[in-house]
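Budget justification aside, the reviewers requested a transparent look at the raw inputs and outputs of the sequence design task funded under Objective 1. We therefore reproduce one unedited record. The lines immediately below are the structure tokens for a 237-residue chain.
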């Protein structure tokens, strides 16, 4: 059963070493992520599943101990998902899960075993919901760390340029995440999310499936659009 969830953005810029001189601009987002992970720890889960966006249409699992790196950004920084050393799978963590691993290391996570799940940008809503239900099935206390960004079209200089539909879409996402509105998250328009370059749509819909019937309350901890990209932090418990 799902006992708690934290929702965080996943830009590599969240890692100060990657952001370099621009690091202070996301200090508030980092602090909110720390608070959200504190909610997870307080729930005393038996297992933590980290869900993040990846390219493609499918889903890929990453065991505890899987490794990731930010060397692609010119930073000599490696991370590991959870505390245990895992078997070499031959696959590196996608950046969304690498950012999550960094957040967990930063907060000293040791409260429960960790596993990763990458879900493709075009993973259908129905499969997202089913995947979430499967994660939360049974009596084990499960928590989710859900990574993903809102639209990348909030300003003229945004990665996707300015789209007038972006701000209303992000406002509804922030409202739904802050209110733990499972129905609203499940109903997010996949095509519109794709057009607005929203990376969090599939992970949020996995959360919606996992939380269906769990009666969790939500709290919006952060919402802003630095660099023209919507970032949202929320905690459910």
């Amino acid at each position: 059963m799902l006992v708690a969830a934290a929702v965080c953005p996943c830009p590599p810029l969240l890692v100060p070493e990657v952001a370099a001189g621009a690091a202070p601009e996301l200090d508030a987002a980092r602090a909110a992520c720390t608070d959200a992970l504190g909610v997870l720890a307080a729930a005393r889960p038996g297992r933590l599943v980290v869900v993040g966006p990846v390219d493609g249409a499918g889903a890929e699992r990453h065991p505890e101990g899987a490794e990731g790196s930010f060397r692609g950004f010119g930073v000599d920084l490696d991370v590991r998902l959870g505390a245990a050393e895992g078997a070499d799978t031959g696959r590196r963590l996608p950046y969304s899960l690498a950012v999550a691993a960094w957040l967990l290391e930063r907060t000293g996570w040791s409260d429960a075993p960790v596993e990763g799940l990458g879900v493709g940008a075009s993973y259908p809503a129905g499969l997202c919901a089913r995947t979430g239900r499967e994660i939360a099935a049974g009596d084990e206390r499960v928590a989710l760390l859900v990574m993903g960004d809102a639209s990348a079209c909030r300003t003229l200089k945004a990665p996707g340029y300015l789209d007038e539909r972006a701000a209303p879409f992000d406002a509804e996402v922030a409202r739904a995440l802050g209110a733990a509105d499972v129905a609203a998250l499940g109903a997010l328009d996949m095509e519109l999310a794709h057009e607005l370059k929203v990376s969090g749509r599939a992970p949020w819909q996995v959360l919606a499936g996992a939380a269906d019937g769990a009666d969790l309350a939500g709290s919006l901890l952060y919402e802003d659009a630095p660099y023209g990209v919507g970032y949202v932090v929320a905690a459910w418990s």
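The chain has a mean pLDDT of 94. The CA atoms of residues 5 and 144 lie 5 Å apart. Computational costs for records of this kind are itemized in the attached budget.
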